[in-house]
Amino acid sequence: MMHFAAFGLPEWRAWDWTAGRLDAQVHLARALLPEDDDTRKWLTDWLSNVQAGTVETELGRNPAAWSQERQELRTVENEDLIGRLQSTSKGEHLLMSVVDAAMRPSRIRSRWARGACCSTCSWPVNRSGGCHRSGPP
Fold first, then answer.
1. Could you tell me the residue range of the domain that residue 113 belongs to?
2. Which has more pLDDT, 136 or 46?
3. Spatial separation of the C-alpha atoms in residues 51 and 53, rounded to whole Å
4. Are both 7 and 57 inside the same structural domain?
5. What is the pLDDT of residue 49?
6. Residue 127 and residue 134 in contact, taking contact as beta carbons nearer than 8 Å
7. What angle do CA 111, 117, 118 make, to 5 degrees?
8. pTM (predicted TM-score)
């Protein structure tokens, strides 16, 4: 599941959106990071407050508790995430849809499998059996 877990359950998406906002806040603060120590300290304090407010507002969670949950999540195995998905009807439906999509034959084939017209291009052989550049063989 790894990076795709955010698609699983609504609360996982909320976590993903919030983590993205927190990352953006850090990047913004780094872009504005001044040279002098006084302003740097002020900006670091400001960033801590903004991030705490983001977690509280968007997730309704205590920032320290959420940070601990994120650390614990690093140890969760894919099987556990799949088990969580299977515990809800929407998650079960999502898993079945993913499996169905993965089992369908692919419509995309390599140029060699579809009969590329020549070794220098990826165009398919034209209707008359020749290269798109040179016409019929």
1. 109-137
2. 46
3. 5
4. yes
5. 92
6. no
7. 95
8. 0.55
Name the residue among 73, 72, 51, 71 with its Cα closest to residue 62: 51
Q: Do 38 and 74 have their domain in common?
A: yes
Q: Angle 81-84-86 (CA atoms, 0-180°, nearest 5)?
A: 110
- Report pLDDT digits (tens) over 19-78: 889 999 988 888 887 777 888 888 888 899 999 999 999 889 898 988 888 888 778 788
Single-letter amino acid, residue 81: L
52 and 88 part of one domain:
yes
Mean pLDDT of the chain: 75
Count of domains forming the chain: 2
- Please indicate, yes or no, whether residues 11 and 48 belong to a single structural domain of this protein: yes
Helix/strand/coil for 77: coil
Cα–Cα dist 87/80, whole Å? 11
Burial category of 8 from C-beta neighbours within 10 Å (exposed 0-12, middle 13-18, buried 19 and up): buried
- The answer to whether 46 touches 28, Cβ cutoff 8 Å, is no
The tokens describing 56, both together, are 């509280």
- Please check whether residues 68 and 49 belong to one and the same domain: yes
